[in-house]
Amino acid sequence: MAFVNSNREHIVDQKIDTDLSSIDYENKLFLRLVAKGKRFEKVNFRFTIFDTAYLRNCVFDSCDFTGCRFVGVNFYGAKFTGCKFDYATFERTIIDSDILNNCCPGWDNLKLKFARTLRVNFQQLGDSKSANKAIKVELDATEIHLKKSWRSNESYYRKKYNGWKRVGKFLEWLNFKVLDFVWGNGENTYKLTRSVILLLIAMAFFDVLNFQDVTKVASYRDAILKMPEVLLGVVSPAYYSSRYLAIIYFTRLVAMGFFMSIIIKRFNRR
């Protein structure tokens, strides 16, 4: 037989009217569960589904939410301390972003997945501030995970990423670091502005070394002042080759694309 009963108990339209401690609610389906101001301590919720639940101002201490799915849950005012959320997912769930401060999984690959599902959840609710916080945690965890994938001597990484897979992870980490430096992987306007400034300085030095008098300070000053106009296409010096102008044009398109991408992302979260 291809299928067997998962023995998931359905608990529908119930209300919790007392504090709970050391109770096993593994593999349940809570539909329209209600609890307000209750305390849950060391409760096992592994692989349980919370659907359209209302758990306002509740306190969860050292609870296990491994593999849980939260859909349309209201955790307004709820506090989580020392809880485990490995492989948990969130959809349209009202929950405080403080959960990212004290309940992230220990493994970096699980941590980035945890932050990612919360980021998508916050975006669904239009909570841009919490979404930005989740993105930062996700990017930090991604960087650490990619670095460990090719560099760490931990048995997990060396067993999963060996041979050419290790090389591939190194290239993936290198690409992540380059994009992080250029524009913060699409999340940092400051880094993109810094990259454009460095590009203008490099263009100015190229101009002076190839077309101006390198012994004169005025050559560097004039070149730096002129480069923004060159990059934006307002000025196209006649002594520049068509190939170099094409490179500048392509660079301008990429930079504008990066700026527009960041702006669009910010507006989409609102």
Description:
The protein is of the alpha/beta class. The protein folds into three domains: 1-96, E3 ubiquitin-protein ligase SopA (Pectate Lyase C-like); 113-179, no CATH class; 189-268. It has helices at residues 99-102, 108-125, 128-151, 155-160, 164-183, 189-211, 217-231, 242-268, and strands at 9-12, 20-21, 28-31, 34-36, 39-41, 49-51, 54-56, 59-61, 69-71, 79-81, 89-91. The strands form three sheets. A five-stranded parallel β-sheet has the order 1-3-6-9-11. The protein has a four-stranded parallel β-sheet with strand order 2-5-8-10, with no helix packed on it. Helix 3 (128-151) runs antiparallel to helix 5, helix 5 packs across helix 6 and helix 6 (189-211) crosses helix 7 (217-231).
Taken from the alpha-carbon principal axes, the silhouette is elongated
Beta content = 5-15%
The total tally of domains equals 3
Rounded to an integer, what's the Rg over CA atoms? 26 Å
Mean pLDDT: 93
Helices, by number, come to 8
N-C termini distance: 49 Å
Top CATH class of the largest domain: Mainly Beta
- Write the CATH architecture name of the largest domain: 3 Solenoid
Structural class: alpha/beta
Helix content: 40-55%
By DSSP, the count of extended strands is: 11
Q: Tell me about the biggest sheet?
A: 5 strands, parallel
Q: What is the CATH homologous superfamily assignment of the largest domain? A: E3 ubiquitin-protein ligase SopA
Instruction: List the uncertain runs.
Output: none
What is the CATH topology assignment of the largest domain? Answer: Pectate Lyase C-like
Strand order of the largest sheet: 1-3-6-9-11
Oligomeric state as shown: single chain
